[in-house]
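User: I'll paste a sequence; please echo it back and then give the predicted structure.

Assistant: Echoing your sequence first, then the prediction.
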Amino acid sequence: MTVQQTADHEYPPQPPTLGQLLRRLRDARQISRERLAFAAGVSVSYLTHLEQGQRERPTHSVVKALVQQLDTVAALSDTERRHLHDLAGLAETAVPTVAQLQAEITPAMHHVLALHSPAPAAYFDIRLNLLALNNAYAAALPGLTETGNWIHWMFGNELSKRVMVDWEQEAALAVSRLRGTLGGSGSPAWFAELITEYGVYPQFRRLWAHSTAAFGRAQTPVHLRDPRTGGCTRYYSHSFGAHSIRYPGWIGFVSCLRVP
C-alpha cells in the first residue's frame, strides 16, 4: 500500500505561527485588519506583515493592545492568551501574589488533595508559600497552615524542630531546593527581596551561604514526629510541577507516601 502525500496534508504538521493564530482570532471575531490595526494603534501594513510572518516579534505593548481589542469583541480564553504570548516570545514577567496563585487551584486540583488522603499532600508556589493542603498534611505539620510558608515555618516556628526528626538535614535540603528552583527564575529583583526576607533567620543565612542547588529529593524518607504523642512516622516525599495556564512554572505539588 502506498501513501499519497499532498501539499494540503503534510506530515508532520507545522506548528502554528503567531501570525496564523492572530489571524484566526481576528477572523473568529469578524474584525477587519483595518479596524484591529486602528484600534490597537498600529499601521495596517504592520499588522499585515505580522500576520504573514514578515515582521520581527512584537513588543509587550503591541501584543497587549491587540489582545485588548480582541477581548473587547469576544473574550479570549486563558489558553488563547497564553498561546499568543508564547508564540510572540513574551514571557510573563509579573510576579503573582499568593492570592492569585491560590485562585489557580481548581476544584479538580482540590479533589486530587482529597484523593490522596490519608496521605499528606499540598500545593506550594516556588517561593514555598502554601497554596492548598489536605487535612493529613495539616495534621502532619502542625503550625504550617497558620504560618503559610515552608521557610518561615521551618526557621521561625519552634514546632518544626519538634516535628522534623532530622531537622538540620531537612532544613539544608529545603534551602538547597529553594536555590535550585529560584535559579530558573533568572534572579529578578523579587529573588533578592525574598532571600532578604528569609535572611531574618540566622540559621537560614548559615545554610544559604553553604548551600548548592538541589533539584528533587533523593529517595530518603522524611521522619516526622507527632508533638503530642512523640510517635514517629516515615514518609517518602515526591514533588511535581502543577499545571497553570496563567502562571506556568509557579505551582508545585507535594505528596507523601507512608513507609510501612
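The first helix runs from residue 18 to 28. The radius of gyration is 24 Å.
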